[in-house]
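Hey, resending since the last one bounced:
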Amino acid sequence: MTNCIESNKKRKEIIITGFGGQGIILIGRIMGKTAAIGDHMESTMVQSYGPESRGGACSAQVIISDKNIHFPYIKSPDILACMSQSGYDKYKAGIKTGNTILVDQDLVRYNKKAEVNCFSIPATRMAEELGKTMMANIIMLGFVTAVTKVISMDAAKSTVAESVPKGTEELNLKAFDAGCYYGLAELKGGEKKVTGRIGAGL
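The structure tokens again:
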């Protein structure tokens, strides 16, 4: 596993997957909007739901590029973020050498491979400690942002504040910061138990 997930490649293809009701589509929308408005890149987002909107499988496919995007669908993502076992099982075969997998470690069992960058975070557990399980998606968003640098952190925070229900901005930003902090700790080497420091901020 490399210590920093950076690349000269200007096009990044990301799949975020989980269950309906986890806020997976919101992650995709925030990433796409951040890229387009905050980072001045081209972006597309395609969403997919299973047979049930809540509890069924769902995914968001996001492409970010410095050039025009002519086809919005993804076969082999550069980045795969999973918040469900079924999502990981569905897309893991498309992950190739040098790609990145990020998972909610309490919800997804995965096989670490030396040729793939693997990162995990207890996003749902951290959200429970914040008192809002539904904010696990924003914690995962912060984690993905910090680890992959596919979108800029400041622009993402601004988009989060604009995208969540009024009155929840402060708590959602705290959740985003918690995910970022965990991701930065991962990059510095070794998994660090920062769950108890969620409220400390950055």
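Residues 41 and 171 are 28 Å apart (CA to CA).

Sorry for the duplicate.
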